[in-house]
TrEMBL record:
GO CC terms: cytosol; plasma membrane
Family matches, as SUPFAM superfamilies: Ypt/Rab-GAP domain of gyp1p
Disordered: annotated segments: 326-384, 397-433
Source organism of the structure: Ictidomys tridecemlineatus (Thirteen-lined ground squirrel)
One Pfam family of this chain: RabGAP-TBC
Positions with biased composition (Polar residues): 370-384
A molecular function GO annotation: GTPase activator activity
Protein name: TBC1 domain family member 10A
InterPro entries named in the record: Rab-GAP-TBC_dom, Rab-GAP_TBC_sf, Rab_GAP_TBC_domain
Residue ranges of every copy of the Rab-GAP TBC domain listed in the record: 41-229
Length: 433
């Protein structure tokens, strides 16, 4: 296992905390930086939280509050319960979470798998889902692990766990076609031996290498897989085939089908070592576009030889960015904020407008007084009395007459008086609170 210095690990944790706390902004503007940091490895303390954000499981949980509890309380389909129960002790039997029968690890694993069979009854249960769910449970609670499992089955590897396994067969042909470009020697040997890709890649792809690679390599591969999608699974498979069968020296021990398959089942530890494998995977020139082009070619060949696919799985999404674009998370509603209403001739806060001199203020005040007098003349006696009383009450409450006497303070007091006149008591309280 590659040991990361403690100081470097703390720096990475700080950077990841900033990303997770501002996730939408980072995904929108700095997705390449997220991808580079996933390639370096997610800090162990934040790996579970990061996987939820990358996979979109966090958004799914927010969109379906209480759904997992509802499925968990349901009795479940007896057709699948016995099969799931028999598979529990086979998942990482030496891990402390799953070592004891009936322990909390096996109980949570049973809950997650049972809930998925109820969530997707048409798909049911596949044994390859158990190790996927077990790895997720090592990093997050059962409800969060359930929604991450849903995202893997629906977005990253759609159709992999259907009854006919048509999607995995198609991807086997895609892998074999890409191998011809990556390692012609390995491709020629497998073609000569007539070894079907399903014989060596089924467990690799369906379990996302959880049962194949050393644990440290599994975590690094999953970090990149959640960020970049199924492309990483293809790259890992191609790297393993290239270094296991890609030279004449290594093929000397693989004279037949049996020896070749055994070579692929017992891979060299050097090939699977974390630093070596990750570097090879990052540098391998296999893109999403190449994978989708090969997918169309193999799908056309399938239809010509076997007819239409029986399982209509949704198109897979290549990584966190594509998933976020397809299913954006909920946005918080904008809250209205109170605003201060100023008279038209008042300068705005922060503007460079100069205050009016005191004499000009007095002139305007006289004009307003004359205007109000003319208005009073146009009103009936009763209406004029009401307006005069209201004006006197406003002046007596807001601006005492003695505050208007000094000329130096006239502009400030007048502006304060005008702003107070434009606000009711409740509006004033809301504004300044």
């Amino acid at each position: 296992m590659e040991e990361v210095p403690l100081e470097v690990l703390r720096q990475r944790e700080s950077k990841w905390l900033d990303m997770l706390n501002n996730w939408d902004k980072w995904m929108a503007k700095k997705h390449k930086k997220i991808r580079l940091r996933c390639q370096k490895g997610i800090p162990p303390s934040l790996r579970g939280r990061a996987w939820q954000y990358l996979s979109g499981g966090k958004v799914k949980l927010q969109q379906n509050p209480g759904k997992f509890d509802e499925l968990d309380m349901s009795p479940g389909d007896p057709k699948w319960l016995d099969v799931i129960e028999r598979d529990l002790h086979r998942q990482f039997p030496f891990h402390e979470m799953f070592v004891s029968r009936g322990g909390h690890g096996q109980q949570d694993l049973f809950r997650v798998l049972k809930a998925y069979t109820l969530y997707r009854p048409e798909e049911g249960y596949c044994q390859a889902q158990a190790p996927i769910a077990a790895v997720l449970l090592m990093h997050m609670p059962a409800e969060q692990a359930f929604w991450c499992l849903v995202q893997i089955c629906e977005k990253y590897l759609p159709g992999y766990y259907s009854e006919k396994l048509e999607a995995i067969q198609l991807d086997g042909e895609i892998l074999f076609s890409l191998l011809q470009k990556v390692s012609p020697v390995a491709h020629k040997h497998l073609s000569r031996q007539k070894i079907d890709p399903l014989l060596y890649m089924t467990e690799w792809f369906m379990c996302a290498f959880a049962r194949t690679l050393p644990w440290s390599s599994v975590l690094r591969v999953w970090d990149m897989f959640f960020c970049e999608g199924v492309k990483i699974i293809f790259r890992v498979g191609l790297v393993l085939l290239k270094h296991a069968l890609g030279s004449p020296e290594k093929l000397k021990a693989c004279q037949g089908q049996y020896e070749t398959i055994e070579q692929l089942r017992s891979l060299s530890p050097k090939i699977m070592q974390e630093a070596f494998l990750v570097q090879e995977v990052v540098e391998l020139p296999v893109t999403e576009r190449q994978i989708e082009r090969e997918h169309l070619i193999q799908l056309r060949r399938w239809q010509e030889t076997r007819g239409e696919l029986q399982c209509r799985s949704p198109p897979r999404l290549h990584g966190a960015k594509a998933i976020l674009d397809a299913e954006p998370g909920p946005r918080p509603a904008l809250q209205p904020s109170p605003s201060i209403r100023l008279p038209p001739d008042a300068p705005l806060p922060g503007s460079k407008a100069k205050p009016k001199p005191p004499k000009q203020v007095q002139k305007e005040q006289r004009k307003q007084t004359k205007a109000s007098g003319q208005l009073d003349k146009s009103l009936s006696p009763n209406q004029a009395a009401v307006v005069t009383a209201a004006g006197d009450a406003c002046l007596s409450q807001d601006v005492p007459s003695k505050d208007l006497a000094p000329q130096d303070s006239a502009p400030q007091d007048l502006a304060h008086h005008c702003s107070q006149e434009s606000l009711t008591s409740q509006e004033s309280e809301d504004t300044y609170l």
